[in-house]
C-alpha cells in the first residue's frame, strides 16, 4: 500500500468520533472485502489495528464493546481468512464468552461452512472444547488436509486423538464409504481423494511431522509391514536378489511378535515356497497349532526343525556364494586390509592416511533400509577407501563411545575436514543423499554438504558415459533385473557388476556378517578403480578426449550414437584429464529441451504432470488407484524419470538408477513444482514448446 494511501486512511480514523464503529459501518455497506486477495477493506482494517496500538484510548469496553462484537459476528460469517486477525484484535473477540464463541462456530458448521468454522476455531483457539472428529471429517472429504494439520497443530492431545480416529478408518473390514455417506451433498466433495491410500499417506506424514509414536496407529503400521513382507518375498523368490540369511533377518524384524503378520507370513511361505518351510517359521515364531493353516501343523510334527533349518540355510548360502563368486566384481585387496573401526584410538591410522594432501578417497555409506518407515535414515556404516586399504567406520558405536564433547568434536571435525579440504579428491556416487543422511545422523555435520570441496560425484560422470541400456534377463528360469546405478557403471568400466545382494541388509545389527563387510568395502573401493580407469582413457567411454577444451560449467560429451563399450585402453595424459574430470563431475549437464525430457508423475502430483505437459514435456501420470510402484515399472520400461513426493520417494528411488527419481515439494503449487523440476534437470523451455503436445 502506498504511503499516501496509509496517511489518508489514518487521517480518516482521526476524524471519526468512533473509528471502531466506523469500520463496521464501512464493512456492512461494502462488499469489496468478501472476495479473495487483499481488498481495500483489508488494508483499512489492518491499518486500524496498528493505529489503535498507537492510540489506545479509542479502545471500547463494557456494553459498547459488546454491541460492536455482536455486529462483528454477523460479518465473520462471510469474512475471508485474511480479515479475521485484524477483526479479532480490534474488537477483542478473545474476551467474548467462550460458550458464545463455540455456539457461533457451531452455527457456521451446521450451515455447511466447515472450512470457515475450522479457521475461526483456530484463530480463537477453541479446539480443546470441540469434537476433533466432527470438525476434521468434512475437511478431509473436501481434500483440505493442510487445514486439518493446522487445526491440531498446537494441541498434542488432539493430534493423538485425530491419528487414532484416522487409523480406525483403516482397520480391516471398515468401509470407508460409511464416513462419506454422512455428508452427502457436501460441496466440493472429492470422493476420489478420500480413500485408504490417502489416509495412510496422511497418517504417516502427521506421525513424522508431530513426532508421535507410530504405535498409535496399529492398522496402518500393520499394512505397511505387510507391504514390506510382500516386497521381501518378491526380492527373495522372484528376483532372487537376497541371500537367505539377509532375507531371514529382515523378515524376523518385520514380523516380530505380531500374530497377525505371522499368519500372513505363513500364507506367503505356502504360496512362494512350501509347507515344510512354513512349518519351520511357525516353530520359530512359537505359533499355536490351532491357528496354523491346513497342513502346516501336520508338517510341524514330522520335521526335526532345528537340524533342517541349519542344514538348509548353510546349503543355500554355500551354493549362492559359490555361484556368485566369479560373476561379480571382486575386491583386489587382501582381507586384512579391510579395517572395522569402533573407537577413536582405532581411527588414528585412518586419519593419518586419509587426510594426506593430494589423496584420492572413495566414500560410501550404508544404513538400515527403511521400507517406508517414518523418519530419515541414520548412517550405520561409513566406508572410506584409500590406496590399498578400506576403513569401515562404525558410526553408531563411535558416536556412542565418544561420550565427552571434545571426543565427539574430533570425529565430526575429521569428517568435516575430509569433505572441506579441496586438496583431497572425494569420490562418491549420488553423494547428496549420503550427505543428507550423514547430517541426520550427527547434528554437527548438518552443513557438511555446503562446505564440501574437491568432490567428484561419479553419478554425474555416469550420465556422460557412452553405453547401451541393459535389458532384463532370465537365468535358471528366474527373472533377473538389469544392472543399474553404480553397479552398471562398474560393469561397463571394470567388466563385472557389483554384487548387490547385501544392499538391503540390516546394517544396524552387530556383529556384521562377513558378506556385509566385503560388500561394504567393495562399494567404496570400486570407486577408486572406476575413477582411475576413466581418467586413464576417457575417450573409449564416450567422454571428451580434449577435456582442456571444455568451458567451465559446460562439460563436453562426444555427440555420437550409443554403442557397445570399447574397453581398449589408449595411452593418455591421465593427470591433466583427472583434474578436468573433477571439474566436469561437479558441473550440471548441458541444457535439454522439453521434447527430450520424459517423466512419470506419481498420483499425488497430477497437477504438476498436467503443467509440465503444457510446457511440452513427455509426461505419463499415475491414476489415483495406481500403486506407487507402478511408477518404477513405467520408468524402467520407458526410460522415464520418476517425479514423486514424501515417503514413496524412499521406496521408488531404490528401484531405479541413481538420479532417476526426484522428490518434489508437495506443499507447493504446480507452477513452483514445475520450476523446481526444470531447474534441477536443466530443461530450457521456449515459446515453441508451450502447448506443443496434445493436452
Quick overview:
With 695 residues, the protein is an alpha/beta fold. 51% of the residues lie in helices and 7% in strands. The protein has 31 helices and twelve strands.
Description:
Mean pLDDT is 84; it is low at 545-576 and 582-588. With 695 residues, this protein is of the alpha/beta class. The protein has four domains: 3-212, no CATH class; 220-304, no CATH class; 338-468 and 484-541, Nucleotidyltransferase, domain 5 (2-Layer Sandwich), CATH 3.30.420; 594-681, Rossmann fold (3-Layer(aba) Sandwich). α5 (81-90) packs parallel to α7 (114-124), α10 runs antiparallel to α12 (196-209) and α13 runs antiparallel to α14 (244-255). The chain contains 31 helices and twelve strands. The strands form three sheets. Strands 1-4-3-2-5-6 form a six-stranded mixed beta sheet, with helices on both faces.
Helix and strand topology:
Blueprint: H1 3-15, H2 19-29, H3 40-54, H4 62-76, H5 81-90, H6 98-110, H7 114-124, H8 132-141, H9 145-152, H10 156-168, H11 177-181, H12 196-209, H13 218-238, H14 244-255, H15 259-272, H16 275-284, H17 296-302, H18 305-324, E1 338-341, H19 344-354, E2 360-366, E3 381-386, E4 389-393, H20 395-401, H21 405-420, E5 425-428, H22 431-441, H23 448-451, E6 455-457, H24 458-462, E7 473-475, E8 478-480, H25 485-494, H26 514-536, H27 574-585, E9 598-601, H28 606-614, E10 618-621, H29 629-638, E11 641-644, H30 648-653, E12 661-663, H31 670-680
Parallel strand pairs: 1-4, 2-5, 5-6, 9-10, 9-11, 11-12
Antiparallel strand pairs: 2-3, 3-4, 7-8
Helix pairs in contact: 1-3, 2-3, 2-4, 3-5, 5-7, 6-7, 7-8, 7-9, 8-9, 10-12, 13-14, 13-15, 15-16, 16-17, 25-26, 26-27, 28-31
